[in-house]
Please model this.
Amino acid sequence: MTTVQRATVNDVSALLPLVEAYWRFEGITGFESERVATQINRLLSEPRLGGGWIAIVNGTAVGYLLAVYVFSLEHLGLTAEIDEFFVAPSRRGQDLGAQLLKAAESEFTQIGCTNVSLQLARDNDAARAFYRRHAYSERSGYELLDKMFP
Model:
């Protein structure tokens, strides 16, 4: 049985192994279980910050999507940014990603978000194809820049 549902603080322990797998997949360093758990708990406890969705198959968490909300004058209101989105490799191609995305987008529109954006590794062609199938496209003339604070 497959369920896609809004994640709650009760799901943090189920999410952690998936987040760790996602970070390995993306080459993100610095995974520390306690620190990550604290931040997921914060996100899921404060709906104004964003939210999460979890895919469960036969009682096991196999995918998740975390999004944050940002006010944008350029986009004339609240926007959503998909911060992390991962489905276990063994469960890809089973429509779980589409179900997670649909659940998240439904809430984005319900709360009045004007758009949704995400970051994507330049060489992640499989994800790019997935997003294009779901009407996402590159924003012409723009590139993401960032700066980390100590």
